[in-house]
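Hey, quick one: can you model this chain's 3D structure?
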Amino acid sequence: MAQTHTRATPGAAAVLEQFRSALIARNIIPPEPIVADGRLHRCDGAGPRGRGDAAYLLHLNDAPAGGLENWRDGRGWEAWRHDLGRESTPAEREEFARVSKATKAASDDEASLRHEAACHVAARIWSASRPAPPTHMYLVRKGVDALGLRIHKGVLVVPVRDLAGTLHSLQFISPSGVKRFLKGGRIQGLCCWVGTLADLTQDDESTLCVAEGFATSASLHQAAGHPVVICLPCGQPRPGGRCRASTVPQSAHHRVRRRRPRHPWQSGAHAGAGSRAPCGRMGRRAGLRYRAAL
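Sure thing. Here's the predicted structure for all 294 residues.
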């Protein structure tokens, strides 16, 4: 009896090859074989610690379609359909819309389960952790205080919260500076912060700084005294900026950028309401998208 993913459908090999290319483009390791049974399947993301960090779904029928997601890149679910080499018929477009809606729902259900499980794990680790000492190698090298971080099994623990203060996930920073997030934890739309955010909405003159990474944010807070929202993950600061922008006046925002000092005595962190590049090495396009979100 033939299996679903190997059944003889017109162009099945071409469909699978095209879908395999789409997986690779999202830094997903194509499984062998690719199972096209209309169900959500987990697979591995490329790179270290990528096991089980991706998923895909594929329908292999007259109008092949499905979707894929790499949970490590923060881009969410991507609907996919086979390039037929011609314009789709109304019936095919309708079928694709139906399949896309179903695959997105399956992906959302899977993500909810992963996030809920990770939330419980994060709470246990956070409770078992103790306040980070100022002598931790990473803090000493960066020249910043712990500012509420904790330590667990030798690594710093950064809480990933929503603006209500609910803990959703964790970021871990090793003494050498290697950063990783709790597996399966939600990151999109969340952030961390140093300082007090409670009364920012009460005073139009309040200043809120938005920066990428704990060390940069801690340096800014210690130098200027303003609360700083730490955008996570590194290289994608938009969610953190967006989650705070709706509650703080535009005049209160200060973006932070890092640049190579022109002179040895210059600091590497700069803040200003007119800064065009919010974070170092993030690229012009990402910086402009981030600025628009604020």
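One thing worth noting: The CA atoms of residues 191 and 240 lie 5 Å apart.
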